[in-house]
Amino acid sequence: MSPPSWLTPAVTRLRTANPYVVDAALAALVLFAASLQWIFPDEGDDKLTWQGWLLAAATALPLVWRRRAPFTTAVAVSAATCTMAWYHAPPPDVVYGGLVVLYTMAAQGKAWQRRFMLTGWILGVVLTMQHKEEPMPFEYAFQLLSVVGAYGFGMLARVQRAYTAALVDRARRLERERAADTARATAQERARIARDMHDILAHAVSLMVVQAEAGPVVMRSDPARAEAAFDAIAETGRDAMTQLRRILGVLKEEEREGGARRLPQPGVAALPGLIRQVTESTGLRVELRTDGEPRPLPPDTEVAAFRIVQEALTNTVKHAYASSATVALDWAEDALTLSVTDDGRGPSGPGGGHGLIGIRERAAACGGSARAGRGPEGGFRVVVRLPAGDRQAALG
């Protein structure tokens, strides 16, 4: 339960104040309340003595240490109160110090300490009232309700403190989880950008190397063809630089805007342009075949399909020494199966190099699979299956 708005500043200052100052002020207040019998004496049989006042002071002064040694303070105040009541010097009308230590024990003490103090004070009140001359029934109720009420308020404070600590712990845990999610998302985005940059550079450099090797060979015999080769090198380089600028530009925007924006990436629809570029730049004959009804894919799957075909064709140009290749897209209800088959020799190593590893990683990132090996009629073949998802998810 929160305090009223007009009381909130005072409560905040009280909670942040020096504990010794607050507890010393509380002890002084309790001492003043316990001294009222001596300040305003009434007519009665109880004699006011200085020993009695010292016992009253003993029920108040230990409260200065109530938060540093709660159980020791409670024992000291309890002993002083019992002694004061036993010797009738005079007995306290209200056990002010006892109410404070009961509240403190309920709020801060261990379970056995809380039970011990509550039981002891209830028995003490009953025994004290038994020895009092002509006790009134309401005095029993008043003393017992005071003790139980102080203990109850302390338990409420304990529960509220535990609830606040749980909320703070939950907030910190959520903050750590949020930071971990952000770090994971950042790592995934960096890996995606690294794959894209690898694919762009590997593809562009492979085409440029092929043209650079062919240019000097035909420079004297066929100047026009040599000129076309060098034009293709320049065009490929410009295209690669454009794509890299777009990636790096969006990367800077993501850093400024918290990663909210992403680069528009090429998808399945851009495959004819990719195949035309490879054919014109390298002379490799590439055929595109489509089976089934094409349909929109999730954005990440669109990018993965394009980059996988790009990497497979790059491997063909670099390693296969092939004269032709076929890109086949097989559209099914729940998946897109794409294959790239060439008539070359394929990679020499069993692992397939970094290119095939990147293909497998891209497929796995989309929930798909990839395999590579000899084609049914020789050459080399890469087959990748990518989940298509439902149409609404792809469009949304």
UniProtKB/TrEMBL annotation:
Reaction equation(s) it catalyzes: ATP + protein L-histidine = ADP + protein N-phospho-L-histidine
Keyword Transmembrane: yes
Coiled-coil ranges from the UniProt annotation: none
Transmembrane segments: 20-41, 47-64, 94-112
Keywords in alphabetical order: ATP-binding, Kinase, Membrane, Nucleotide-binding, Phosphoprotein, Transferase, Transmembrane, Transmembrane helix, Two-component regulatory system
Pfam families given in the database record: DUF7134, HATPase_c, HisKA_3
Record keyword Transmembrane helix present: yes
Molecular function GO labels: ATP binding; phosphorelay sensor kinase activity; protein dimerization activity
EC class (word): transferase
GO CC terms of this entry: membrane
Span of domain Histidine kinase/HSP90-like ATPase: 300-390
EC number: 2.7.13.3
Name of the protein in question: histidine kinase
Record lineage: Bacteria, Bacillati, Actinomycetota, Actinomycetes, Kitasatosporales
